[in-house]
Amino acid sequence: MQNFVLHNQTKIIFGADRLQEIGSEAKVLGARALLVYGRQSIRQNGILTAVTASLQSCSVAIIHHGGVQSNPLLSHVRQGIAKAKEEQVDMVIAVGGGSVIDSAKAIAAGALVDHDVWKFFNGKKSIKQCLPLACVLTLAAAGSEMNGGMVITHDDRKVKFGTGNRLLNPVVSILDPTLTYTVPPDYTAYGAADAIAHILEFYFTTADASTPVQDRFMEGLVINIMESCDKVLHDPCHYQGRADLMWCATLALNGWTAAGLGLVGFPMHMIEHTLSAHHDIAHGAGLSVVMPAWLAHQAERAPHKFAQFGRRVFQVEQKECRAAARAGIARLQEWLRGAGCPTSLAELGIAPETIPFLAEQSLPLAKLWRLKEYDQEKIETILRSCL
Amino acid sequence: MQNFVLHNQTKIIFGADRLQEIGSEAKVLGARALLVYGRQSIRQNGILTAVTASLQSCSVAIIHHGGVQSNPLLSHVRQGIAKAKEEQVDMVIAVGGGSVIDSAKAIAAGALVDHDVWKFFNGKKSIKQCLPLACVLTLAAAGSEMNGGMVITHDDRKVKFGTGNRLLNPVVSILDPTLTYTVPPDYTAYGAADAIAHILEFYFTTADASTPVQDRFMEGLVINIMESCDKVLHDPCHYQGRADLMWCATLALNGWTAAGLGLVGFPMHMIEHTLSAHHDIAHGAGLSVVMPAWLAHQAERAPHKFAQFGRRVFQVEQKECRAAARAGIARLQEWLRGAGCPTSLAELGIAPETIPFLAEQSLPLAKLWRLKEYDQEKIETILRSCL
Question: Are A48 and A152 contained in the same domain?
Answer without folding.
Answer: yes
